[in-house]
Amino acid sequence: MAGGKLYIGRKVREIREANKATQAVFAERLGISTSYLNHIENNQRPVSAAVLLSLAEKFQIDIGSISAGDNDRLLSTLVEALADPLFGGYSPSLQELKLVIQNAPGFAHSLIVCHQAYRRNSEQLASFDDRLGRANTFSEPTAYEEVRDFFHFVDNYIHSLDVAAEELATSLKMADRSAAAALSEYLETRHGVRVLAAGQDKDVLRHYDAASRVLSLNRYSPAATKTFQMAFQVGALEQNAEIADIVRRAEFRTDEAAEICKIGLLNYFAGALVLPYLAFASQAKALRHDLELLAARFGASLEQVAHRLSTLQRPGLKGVPVFFATIDRAGNITKRHSAAKLQFARFGAACPLWNVHQAFDSPGRIIRQLAETPDGVRYLSIATEITKRSGGYRAPQRQYAIALGCEISFARDFVYADGLDLADRAGFNPIGISCRICERGDCSQRAVPPLKTKLRIEHDHRAALPYVIPQQSL
Predict the structure, then answer these.
(1) Which of 135, 380, 406, 409 has the fewest beta carbons closer than 10 A?
(2) Could you tell me the CA-to-CA distances from 193 to 186, 188, 223 in Å, in that order?
(3) What domains lie within the chain, and their CATH numbers?
């Protein structure tokens, strides 16, 4: 999309071919000329509102599902990749990149994969001396990154698993009873699996013994965690065939990535079972996305609720488009997804001006922030610190923060917007995506210069940064 115009030629062509129609027949059904349809399919002309409505009415197409906004994730990733000096300062226009994504998304994905491989090899060579002689390799991070990209580009929504989980939750009447009790009873009556507390010496969340058909859960885990692990086990017993098919179609490059993805898909099923789509989406709207009330309503954790909000992408029944991420104390983004325009950086730490870092200083509180990215888009962002314990005083603790937010046009749907002046642009904090691609030249928190900028060094003048970033070169 450029200047408010919608160029979705490839998608229109896919709809026509799926209906086995010629351009003449398809154009007639849409009420337009064949030449206009030909121009649309070749992205020579934008799609009008009338054509969009006709597609929705006559071909039962969800307008939201074919909007150019669905390509924001791919566009953001491609822009970041091309910012690398490897490409010799090549700077295609935004319209050029959008045309590539709309007409040749496979090519864009392949270019990104090649760039990722280059980055990994460069990092491996740079740290070769330090890693010489170690058995550990870079295969595991590569596999995790590949799986993370899989969920990223399927919009963090797996329809078959989501529907199966919702149907099971309905049949078990989980909305009217304790989810933990319902799942424990179901595991025993349907699968002959007993749910027991693990021994005190077992430092595990979940252990399943197929021979004895016993599911052991950590006795010190919170109730929400135990419920989730039971839901996971239900998925492991019932969804293997479907998950294997999803993984096969994903065509992962390594067996390791395939196995990691299976775990991710089982986690997805578990979340969808504990928080069934329609019931959860309805309550999220009614409670104005109050994380604590939603957690209490469904017996879930704040993280489970926040993550589930990011998966409400069912065609025709989408929730508010949100971004969701988990970040450790070093600023590393360990989970990420965005249905909003905000897209997270693939390399480097999160912007230090983002309120998610403040969450570590205020455990137990939800921190609010009005933020604006360099492209002028404004957001409501909330963050809170999460501490996971596995036992008593001496047990290790895991700390991280979760962030959730939306574009400001949706902020009124969130209770966290109450009392904030959404109209005062001066009240929005400037944040970036990652220093290496951030366009801001006057940020005192900048960690490294932007990659595609030739710095100016002034020996007789020093500001917050020891260099000057010429704005005209960005």
Answers:
(1) 135
(2) 9, 5, 19
(3) 9-107 (1.10.260.40), 138-275 (1.10.10)
